[in-house]
Amino acid sequence: MKKRMNSSKTIILKAAAAAIALVMTAASCGAVYFSEFYHAAHGAQAAMAGSDTVKVEKLGGGKGYLFDGPGEDRAFTFLQGGKVEEEAYAPLMMRIAQSGTDCFLISSPANFALFDRSEAVKVAEDHEYAEWYIGGHSLGGVAASMTAAEYDFMFSGIVLLGAYPAEEVPGKMRLLSIYGSEDGVLDMDSYKEGKKLWPKEADEVIIEGGSHAGFGDYGPQKGDGKPSMGSEEQIEKTADAITEWIGK
Prior knowledge:
It is built from seven helices and eight strands. By secondary structure, the protein is an alpha/beta fold.
């Protein structure tokens, strides 16, 4: 009997050791996965310096950046695409801010907006603007849709770039969806299905020749289509569309 008990203990200890090893392996793989990401290119890094009309300020706690332009009434908080350095969207934020809508570019843990959406809400709580909008690129758009659904009283509208909502967008909100015609990453079947979650007041813009990665300045993205324009042109078209839509 004593021998059986010792044998059982051995089995339990071996199982526990195997479980611990499995968890450690998964954690290690996760660390490797999130350590590899798309870095902001030179143009984006230059945009982080600001301009004569837009001042770039770092938010407290390293949670992101404020692109403070000439506007005072409207603000746009933006969530980065999955595994894309947030600074890659600086050129887009700069153009929108120059047109009169201040922008908050949120920094997410491990460059993954789904890990923490609270900062997008916190900046809206800590800064006074008459009107707030929220948006994001790719998985950042998914995270933005979840935030919009939960905090619909805060935001007047949502902007999705190469993305579709994960939850129903509240009916009182407006929605703007933009994607590139050459986007090879966006699942178009899921995108079309996601239209069922759009609010009644929704607009769609297709950028002819645009790609999935073209909304930011971080170079080509794996699995993407071949664009017929550079990211600078796509960012300009995107900023113009967003500015016009917000101003309606």
